[in-house]
């Protein structure tokens, strides 16, 4: 019989070389934390029986530590010198100068001697005995995590917690506590709001996690790696084979994007609009593997938003959330591409989650609505006219929040040259440049600076 | 080292029957909102701080007089009986008498607003003093003041006493030929009346019932100084703490019925950056307008995550501290709701006034309230840190805690050297009810003791260390108020032997 944990642990620890804590394992396999501790032990035993030293364990010790010797001499060293603060700031423990107040009790106990202490240590395999010997009694000892080899620092294990937070944040802790064995509190009071609209869940994650924990975790691993550069690289490499057949198709939308880019330059502030405007282009490039998934996600977001949008109060809240989100998006100086690359998408989603994790996801404002209109006259090489631009207005709302609103205003302008002409020139060398633009659009190299998007080409 | 029975139960292959559900002990919690400042228009700073001292003296004088009368009633010196003098200016030379007033400390190193104004060409503030008291005692004077005037104090007895600006005391002695009052003895208001356990609940009907239903052996965890920076590599400590609190690493954590966080949860989030922080910020190219890189959301996100992980299982009382993003004047008001996008679902929505305390209770600093029937009083540590600057010699924080209670002043040095709100009609910083537990966060080291008062009061004093430095959390038994310490040992840096 194959142990249920064997496959996952082999993939993670031995193949991928990543540590796995009991907590992560229990979340992945949906088992009780205590069972996960036993599973780690079993895997460690079996693997090292096959091939000694192939898996390294870290232990968790909890118990009563042996009393430590008191640093008496040190305590007296710092007198009343005004600058003696750094580091050596120890309270005199064993000889508190008696307060001269008239309280008859002389039974002031100095701290630490009578007080019961409990200690927790995370000790690696090779240090286990040393750590154990610093304890008077041990009340619990278990395998905390497995990793491919000795670690320089146990703090790398916190990576597992970040993964638990990321990948299982959609689970309702109040329901899952029975599965995982988290202490349950019958008196907990939580607003119902949190339940009606859970944060948007990435669909593929969920499905894969249910069927087969292994591939999903690897996928997630790359997608959700802490360092954003890594994630980007991963997605870029996914798509490198694609651009070649797309060149012709991409050239046309690239042109469109270029001309739109011109327009976008009119209102640089509205990054969000430019982001959305580039979307049609993505539709032309049909054979993108990620597209379906993205569409699905978005659709689900909308469905969710619709579902919960019933009461008037909720609507108002949604509007406020939308405003807030808008604000966030503008403020953030995020490198963004023409087309949303998978990472950009997740990033954005995360952002949305962060902005309104309880309140429902705000409906995405439709850029098409804020159509820009121009009235222009061309006279001796200069274009003059009026156009509608979106400007930001900040005011205080009745709850005291600063609200930034976009309001359309008419602005006069005068330019040197007709803009579209320039755009055409830029597109003309279709081969190399078009490819480059398309490649950039797919979330490859072009992820750099947003200014390059607006800059002259 | 000895392994207790069952200690190695997980050092074996897993069984399949781990479906035991751990249920956490309930926490009976009713906070008092005496430190809540009025909101909006009602909160203003037009009023004078002098009223704070006036009110303090008026409210504490009767208490001190009573203590002093009892102590010095039959006191005679050379056949002369000590008589009470009402105002400090009525003290006559050579007459043995006693008088009540507010202590004022004149110290050359103490910051003075007049100095600040005369030197306002300074570009940045001078470094804050570690101590106001000078090491050789030169330039430091003790004075006693009331509404009539000031009286300079002297005498060897003073040197043995802990005194800070703002505390109300009675002194006995004579004025010498220099016009200085020689102090023979001194009295303080001492501990106020202590409510009985479950006193507030007993008034209500179900109070008795609560007490009877209550399973014993619950614990109240108190922690301070998480000092999250968002970048520190030792988040593993916080993770271990989370596991412990959730009862995932050990079933010991299940006994904890409530977590109190006593300030400084975030490391560098004070609205007024410290001198060091300001200097650090100034380096680097200057940007105009909103600078996204100047704000780091990491710490507050980390804190929110921590809270949202433990909240499903454990209720939290959250006090702000000196380095938290709250107002800087005492009493600090609760941390804003918007800081907790994830965990705020455990609070009642803003503007909705509910009678029940929030599950995540964002409270003031100082804070007072009843937990499991006991009266708690706690601060984030600023008053004690400020008292430290007045005290020569050692750094016995427990002594300072004790004095604060016996002076009946949560923040004696406010408003002189500690920022506080200019209270007008009532001063909540006066301690009117003696707490059962007095905890102070962000102290250099863990310490605890029990002090007793003249009327049989018994107070557990807790000086809480900074978790970011000592990795210690204090557990209080909710029945006996016995203290226990949990330490997450750092150790183990993988130096393979």
From TrEMBL, chain A:
It is found in: Nucleus. One of its GO terms (cellular component) is delta DNA polymerase complex. The keyword ATP-binding does not apply. InterPro entries: POLD3, POLD3_sf. Residues 92-101 have a biased composition (Low complexity). Residues 288-302 have a biased composition (Acidic residues). GO terms for biological process: DNA strand elongation involved in DNA replication; DNA synthesis involved in UV-damage excision repair; nucleotide-excision repair, DNA gap filling. One of its GO terms (molecular function) is DNA-directed DNA polymerase activity. It comes from the Eukaryota. Residues 381-394 have a biased composition (Basic residues). Residues 47-112, 188-400, 414-457 are annotated as: Disordered. Residues 213-223 have a biased composition (Polar residues). PANTHER family: DNA POLYMERASE DELTA SUBUNIT 3. This is DNA polymerase delta subunit 3. The lineage of its organism: Eukaryota, Fungi, Dikarya, Ascomycota, Pezizomycotina.
TrEMBL record, chain B:
The keyword Membrane does not apply. GO terms for molecular function: DNA binding; DNA-directed DNA polymerase activity. It is found in: Nucleus. Residues 48-185 form the DNA polymerase delta subunit OB-fold domain. GO terms for cellular component: delta DNA polymerase complex. CDD domains: MPP_PolD2_C. Residues 192-216 are annotated as: Disordered. It catalyses: DNA(n) + a 2'-deoxyribonucleoside 5'-triphosphate = DNA(n+1) + diphosphate. Residues 220-447 form the DNA polymerase alpha/delta/epsilon subunit B domain. One of its GO terms (biological process) is DNA repair. Belongs to the DNA polymerase delta/II small subunit family. This is DNA-directed DNA polymerase. The lineage of its organism: Eukaryota, Fungi, Dikarya, Ascomycota, Pezizomycotina.
């Amino acid at each position: 019989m194959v142990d249920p944990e064997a496959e996952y642990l082999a993939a993670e620890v031995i193949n991928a070389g990543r540590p796995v804590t009991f907590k992560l394992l229990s979340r992945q396999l949906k088992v009780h934390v205590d069972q996960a501790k036993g599973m780690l032990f079993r895997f460690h035993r079996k693997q090292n029986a096959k091939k000694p030293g192939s898996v390294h364990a870290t232990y968790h010790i909890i118990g009563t530590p042996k009393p430590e010797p008191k640093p008496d001499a040190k305590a007296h060293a710092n007198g009343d010198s005004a600058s003696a603060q750094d580091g050596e700031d120890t309270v005199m423990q064993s000889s508190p100068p008696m307060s001269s107040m008239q309280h008859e009790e002389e039974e002031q106990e100095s701290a630490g001697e009578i007080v019961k202490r409990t200690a927790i240590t995370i000790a690696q395999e090779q240090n286990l005995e040393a750590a154990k010997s610093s304890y008077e009694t041990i009340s619990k000892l278990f395998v905390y995590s497995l990793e491919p080899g000795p670690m320089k620092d146990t703090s790398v294990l916190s990576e597992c917690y970040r993964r638990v937070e990321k990948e299982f944040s959609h689970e309702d802790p109040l329901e899952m506590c029975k599965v995982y064995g988290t202490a349950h509190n019958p008196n907990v009071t939580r607003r119902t709001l949190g339940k009606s609209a859970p944060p948007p869940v990435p669909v593929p994650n969920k499905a894969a996690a249910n069927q087969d924990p292994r591939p999903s975790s690897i996928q997630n691993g790359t997608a959700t790696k802490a360092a954003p550069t890594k994630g980007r690289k991963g997605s870029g490499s996914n798509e490198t084979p694609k651009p070649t057949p797309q060149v012709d198709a991409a050239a046309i939308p690239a042109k469109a994007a270029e001309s739109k880019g011109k327009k976008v330059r009119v209102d640089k502030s509205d990054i969000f609009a430019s982001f959305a405007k580039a979307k049609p282009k993505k539709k032309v490039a049909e054979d993108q593997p990620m597209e379906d998934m993205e569409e699905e996600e978005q659709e689900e977001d909308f469905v969710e938003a619709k579902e919960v949008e019933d009461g008037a109060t909720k609507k108002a809240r949604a509007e406020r959330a939308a405003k807030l989100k808008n604000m966030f998006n503008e403020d953030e100086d995020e490198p963004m591409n023409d087309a949303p690359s998978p990472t950009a998408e997740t990033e954005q989603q995360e952002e949305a989650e962060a902005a309104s994790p309880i309140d429902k996801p705000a409906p995405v404002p439709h850029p098409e609505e804020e159509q820009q209109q121009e009235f222009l006259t061309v006279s001796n090489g200069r274009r003059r006219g009026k156009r509608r631009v979106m400007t930001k207005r900040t005011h205080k709302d009745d709850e005291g929040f600063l609200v930034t609103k976009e309001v359309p205003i008419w602005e006069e302008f005068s330019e040197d040259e007709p803009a579209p002409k320039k755009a055409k020139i830029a597109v003309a060398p279709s081969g190399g440049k078009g490819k480059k633009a398309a490649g950039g659009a797919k979330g490859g190299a072009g992820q750099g600076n947003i200014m390059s998007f607006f800059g002259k080409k | 080292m000895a392994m207790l029975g069952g200690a190695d139960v997980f050092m074996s292959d897993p069984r399949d029957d781990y479906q035991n559900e751990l249920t956490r002990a309930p926490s009976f919690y009713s906070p008092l909102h005496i430190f809540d400042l009025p909101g909006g228009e009602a909160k203003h700073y037009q009023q004078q701080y002098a009223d704070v001292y006036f009110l303090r003296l008026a409210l504490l004088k009767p208490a001190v007089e009573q203590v002093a009368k009892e102590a010095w009633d039959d006191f005679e010196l050379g056949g002369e009986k000590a008589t009470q003098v009402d105002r400090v200016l009525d003290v006559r030379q050579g007459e043995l008498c006693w008088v009540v007033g507010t202590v004022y400390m004149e110290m050359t190193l103490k910051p003075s607003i007049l100095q600040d104004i005369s030197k306002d060409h300074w570009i940045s503030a001078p470094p804050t003093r570690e101590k106001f008291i000078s090491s050789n005692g030169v330039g430091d004077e003790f004075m006693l003041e009331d509404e009539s005037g000031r009286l300079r104090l002297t005498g060897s007895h003073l040197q043995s006493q802990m005194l800070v600006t703002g505390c109300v005391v009675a002194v006995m002695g004579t004025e010498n030929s220099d016009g200085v009052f020689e102090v023979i003895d001194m009295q303080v208001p001492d501990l106020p009346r202590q409510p009985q356990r479950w006193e507030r609940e007993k008034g209500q009907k179900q109070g008795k019932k609560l007490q009877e239903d209550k399973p014993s052996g619950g614990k109240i965890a108190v922690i301070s100084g998480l000092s999250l920076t968002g970048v520190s590599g030792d988040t593993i400590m916080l993770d271990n703490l989370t596991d412990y609190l959730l009862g995932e690493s050990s079933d010991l954590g299940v006994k904890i019925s409530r977590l109190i966080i006593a300030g400084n949860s975030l490391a560098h989030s004070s609205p007024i950056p410290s001198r060091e922080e300001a200097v650090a910020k100034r380096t680097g190219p200057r940007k105009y307008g909103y600078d996204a890189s100047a704000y780091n959301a990491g710490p507050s996100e980390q804190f929110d995550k921590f809270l949202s992980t433990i909240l499903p299982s454990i209720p939290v009382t959250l006090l702000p501290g000196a380095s938290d993003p709250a107002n800087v004047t005492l009493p600090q008001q609760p941390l804003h709701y918007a800081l907790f996008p994830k965990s705020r679902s455990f609070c009642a929505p803003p503007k909705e006034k509910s009678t029940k305390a929030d599950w995540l209770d964002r409270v003031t600093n100082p804070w007072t309230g009843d937990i499991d029937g006991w009266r708690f009083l706690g601060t984030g540590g600023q008053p004690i840190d400020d008292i430290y600057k007045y005290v020569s010699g050692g750094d016995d924080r427990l002594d300072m805690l004790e004095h604060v209670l016996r002076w009946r002043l949560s923040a004696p040095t406010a408003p002189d050297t500690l920022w506080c709100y200019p209270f007008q009609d009532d001063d909540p910083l006066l301690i009117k009810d003696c707490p059962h537990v007095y905890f102070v966060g962000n102290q250099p080291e863990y310490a605890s003791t029990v002090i007793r008062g003249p009327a049989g009061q018994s107070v557990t004093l807790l000086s809480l260390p900074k978790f970011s430095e000592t990795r210690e959390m204090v557990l209080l038994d909710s029945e006996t108020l016995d203290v226990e310490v949990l330490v997450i040992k750092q150790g183990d840096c993988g130096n393979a032997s």
